[in-house]
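thought: user wants a sequence for this fold. calling inverse folding tool.
action: design(structure=
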């Protein structure tokens, strides 16, 4: 018999930049997640996902996503954002889906662009407990972009 459980967590510290190339009308997002800031429903789970069996936070303290250049309109209109996700020192090409923003351009920095996608944890060397824990990890994050002022934004 196979039992799968859902484990939910939230990273407390995500930071990065969104660089705008106005000549190419494109954007590159570079986000970093501090693995040690994950919070879960109990501390035992937190310790486990930080251990070398899962994220190995001691050896690999950050998860990083760097997008390929994306048309700037995609942050407003939604669509795919592809890039390289680095987890546990392993780089994989992934694609997330940006939701269309409901924000007027004049207040873009105060309104997030939502991104969602799924990865397989086995692609990043996390192969333990496959009989009880799903291989699929669903990710969601918010990107705040202020291109009107600085040409850079913050990933949160």
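)
observation: tool returned 156 residues.
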């Amino acid at each position: 018999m196979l039992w799968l459980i859902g484990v939910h967590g939230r990273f407390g510290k995500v930071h990065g930049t969104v660089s705008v190339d106005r000549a190419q009308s494109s954007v590159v997002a570079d986000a970093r997640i501090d693995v040690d800031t994950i919070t879960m429903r109990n501390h035992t789970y937190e310790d486990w996902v930080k251990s070398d069996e899962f994220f190995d936070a001691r050896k690999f303290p950050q998860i990083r996503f760097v997008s390929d250049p994306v048309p700037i309109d995609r942050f407003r209109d939604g669509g795919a954002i592809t890039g390289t996700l680095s987890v546990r020192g392993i780089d994989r090409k992934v694609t997330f889906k940006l939701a269309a923003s409901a924000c007027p351009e004049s207040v873009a920095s105060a309104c997030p662009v939502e991104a969602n996608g799924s990865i397989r944890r086995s692609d990043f060397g996390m192969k333990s407990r496959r009989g009880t824990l799903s291989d699929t990890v669903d990710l969601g994050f918010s990107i705040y972009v202020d291109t009107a002022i600085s040409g850079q934004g913050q990933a949160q």
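thought: summarizing for user.
answer: Here is the designed sequence. The domain at 9-155 is CATH 2.40.128.110 (Lipocalin).
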